[in-house]
Amino acid sequence: xxxxxxxxxxxxxxxxxxxxxxxxxxxxxxxxxxxxxxxxxxxxxxxxxxxxxxxxxxxxxxxxxxxxxxxxxxxxxxxxxxxxxxxxxxxxxxxxxxxxxxxxxxxxxxxxxxxxxxxxxxxxxxxxxxxxxxxxxxxxxxxxxxxxxxxxxxxxxxxxxxxxxxxxxxxxxxxxxxxxxx
Length: 182
Description:
- There is one protein chain.
- The protein is built from seven helices and six strands.
- The chain is α/β, with parallel strands linked by helices.
- The longest helix has 14 residues, at 124-137.
- A six-stranded parallel β-sheet has the order 3-2-1-4-5-6, sandwiched between helices.
- The radius of gyration is 15 Å and the shape is globular.
- 38% of the residues lie in helices and 20% in strands.
- It has helices spanning 22-34, 58-63, 80-86, 105-112, 124-137, 154-167, 174-180, and strands at 3-8, 39-44, 91-94, 116-122, 141-150, 170-172.
């Protein structure tokens, strides 16, 4: 089954949430690179227009312009370790939790012949969970990698994993993913 790695929003603004997950994301990426599996990255951000009233984007309405990520800002940039491994890979710009909405992610996956997605990144209970559920609903077998995801609190992390695992796909450790992909 053709598998792709989908790394969600590993950006500067979220760096405090990535101490535990970043090393595992790098392991997953290394495996996928070695085995010529597609690697796709997302990058969340909002245009000046979206950050200016009247707010049309629901996330900007929810968090306000000061709580939203402005495209081109330092917070918007990919973390240095991620920027290195993302070179030459598709980077999907997005402005909502679901990386499929208003993007070409589905087209990129279709071009690669992807049947299974391994999803990791931040935030477990927001963009990772929403995108992974959306992938499932679009017909992809979807795995969420619990030790390669991060969020603001342990409670939020666990809630995202439990909700996804109940009805949408498997929740696995990095070691399990690497073993299954051999």
